[in-house]
Write a structure and sequence with these properties.
The chain is of the alpha/beta class. It has a single domain, classed as Alpha-Beta Complex (Spore Coat Polysaccharide Biosynthesis Protein SpsA, Chain A), CATH 3.90.550.10. Helix content is 29%, strand content 16%. The protein contains 4 helices and 6 strands; from the N terminus they run βββαββαβαα. A hairpin with a 2-residue loop joins strand 2 and strand 3. The model has no long low-confidence stretch (mean pLDDT 91).
Length: 145
């Protein structure tokens, strides 16, 4: 399986007041770009052979990971996704993640993939219930469906 990490969104939200990096993927957590936490998890997973990370130049050093290839972002999220898919030329499953999930774990991804394997669909999308987020991080401000 191969993974795509989308990280080309502009940093225009409230976090810009404390971290003026131009892109969300580059927002620093413990002095590291947020996207690096996602890449670390994917790099450790035996299930993932290659990772296309869509980020503007200068956000990360792709040489830190053996599976990572940096793909420049397109003009939209869909364009960025298409560029990453074209780069990977994959005939198998693709795992697509956002760059702004620094708390993701191998266990959570493996659980998600195991649940997907029990169903037949073209696209699977993960949701975290609002109650779970609020219980663990009561001060957080998120968008909920």
């Amino acid at each position: 399986m191969e993974a795509i990490v989308l990280g080309g969104a502009a940093n225009t939200g409230p976090i810009r007041e404390v971290d003026d990096t131009p892109y969300e993927a580059g927002i620093k957590i413990n002095n590291r770009p947020m996207v690096e936490f996602v890449l670390d998890v994917l790099e450790e997973m035996e299930e993932i052979q290659r990772i296309a990370v869509v980020v503007p130049e200068g956000i990360i050093d792709g040489d830190k990971w053996s599976k990572v290839k940096i793909v420049p972002p397109g003009v939209s999220m869909i364009d960025s996704l298409i560029q990453a898919v074209d780069y990977l030329h994959s005939d198998g499953h693709l795992l697509v993640l956002a760059s702004d999930i620094p708390l993701i774990t191998k266990e959570a991804l493996r659980d998600f993939l195991a649940n997907c394997a029990q169903k037949t669909a073209d696209i699977y999308y993960s949701f975290v219930p609002k109650s779970v987020i609020e219980e663990k991080y009561p001060e957080t401000k998120r968008t909920y469906v």
